[in-house]
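Inputs:
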Amino acid sequence: MSSEKPVLYTYWRSSCSWRVRIALQIAGIEAEHRPVHLVKAEQTSQPYSELNPLQQVPSMVINGETLTQSMAIMEYISELKPDCNLLPASPLDKAKVRMICEIINSGTQPLQNLSVLKKFSDKQEERADWAKYWITKGFVALEKALKNTAGEYCYGNKLTLADCCLVPQVYNAVRYNVDMSEFPLISKINQTLEKIPQFKAAHPSNQIDCPE
Amino acid sequence: MSSESDTPRPILYSYFRSSCSWRVRIALALKGIEYELRPVNLLKREHKGDEFIQMNPQGFVPYFVHGHVRLSQSLAILEYIEEAFPSPVRLLPSAPDKRALVRSLAHIIALDIQPLQNLRVLQKVGDERKVEWARDFITEGFQALEKGLEKAHGRYCVGDVATLVDVCLAPQLYAARRFGVDMSKFPTICKMEEVYKTEEPFIRAAFDRQPDTPEDLRAT
């Protein structure tokens, strides 16, 4: 790895940035965080758009390369540090971890992204209902999947990318009043993960751009 | 020959027009993998039927079975196929930074576009708004993808061999056309569309040549 510290463009409460922050913590990679203020639309600025044409966070500059898309960044981190088990060794175990990630990062989170909520409705209540609906649907699928894979964590007893994706999504679920009593396994794993130092360090409340 | 040659051939549960099923069909065709296709009719809600749910509690297509391997979620299936059948055709480059590039471009389609305009979302959005909704999200995603492809493309999206980006893009193009996206803004994406029309694996995997393609949509 180059001697320059990686740079992560992040927003404190962005789920996708948060996933990458957790993955970096687990992999033991120290990165400089550069906040991008989404509500002030800093992601639409010229310099940032050059970096990430979809005008989203996160982006990461590492080893001279600019990477976008949280899952692509996390796969890269896993390949940089294979011993940290963010993705297990066997193709089948990897596939199952990716499957859990995808239920969240394809089947759930995109549907409650801010840009989608804005497009759906001007009314806060309608946006919240929409978000709650899709997170609940996603969690029904996730709870079923985890029944087959979970140990202490999402996949057995070692931290993987699945855990990085889970915690931010539970935060959003709570934010949109999803009835978490319907998802005991997700809740239990989340409670375990929240106590882990790497997860605490990546939490929105501990980010430099978190409002007072 | 791949190490998987002793296992019975894969089974893919697929719907002819499901983008996610289509991706897996393309990957299997590109890699020259013989498989059994079992159609699941989403409009008739066969994916929610007892038989399918018992085998696959998630009720999603595509669903991939290969020996003891049972997987849903198209990207997970694609990455598994890439690792389980590594030769002779690779859909991901070997260098980590190039792999990250291929994944990031594929994920624009698979994570930022398609989930926002798939069948169940459009049903929730409602008939009045669904076309505009789909068109706008595909257009927005294509704007970013076009910029990425401008820098990266050769004959295919990234360089001169097909990768996961092409696997994801071909089905997305069908949706783009279906919802009336103004493709004149995306010349590089259009170039790729022309390539897929001429390449046998893409032709063979397309929506209009599947066992469950309705007669009125079947390729002549």
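The mean pLDDT of chain A is 94. Flag for discussion at group meeting.
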